[in-house]
Amino acid sequence: MGRRRLPAGLRCPCGRRPDARGDDRPALRGGGPHPRAGQRRLRPLPGLGRGLATRAVRLVCGYAAAAGARAAVIQVEPGNAASVAVARRAGFAPGGQRFADDGTLFDRYVRELG
Fold it and tell me: How far apart (Å, rounded) are the C-alpha atoms in residues 55 and 89?
């Protein structure tokens, strides 16, 4: 049986979290397979759900507008509901879909910076 990956932004109550490659690594020390590999008791990281991403997007838009940008675009992979919610709360409107150079399909959200 292969290793399970923790979803991005979540960590196990025992303190383990996924690293950048998605491997399950201990947050402090220790090693070996995860002791709770079959359980689903995960809790969100402390910053999740507090509007920090929306605030960051709004701040970046303010800096971009001050630098002379006329519009901002956020590209989101279809099905990423959390990123769509951030874009909508930050004042972005749907702007169609686009394929990246590697063939990945993205939903675009656009905001005029005036």
Answer: 9
pTM of the entire predicted model: 0.58
- The tens digit of pLDDT for each residue in 24-62 reads 444 444 444 555 555 555 566 666 677 889 999 999 999
- Cα–Cα distances (Å) from 56 to 52, 61, 87, in that order, read 6, 9, 11
Arithmetic mean of pLDDT, 1-12: 53
**Other residues' Cβ atoms within 10 Å of the Cβ of residue 68:** 7
Q: Is 50 left (phi over 0), alpha (psi -120 to 50) or beta?
A: alpha
Range 12-16, long-range pairs (CB < 8 A, 24+ positions): 12/36, 12/41, 12/42, 13/41, 13/42, 13/43
Which domains, ranges and CATH numbers included, belong to the chain? Answer: 9-48 (no CATH), 52-112 (3.40.630.30)
Query: Is residue 4 predicted with pLDDT exceeding 80?
Result: no
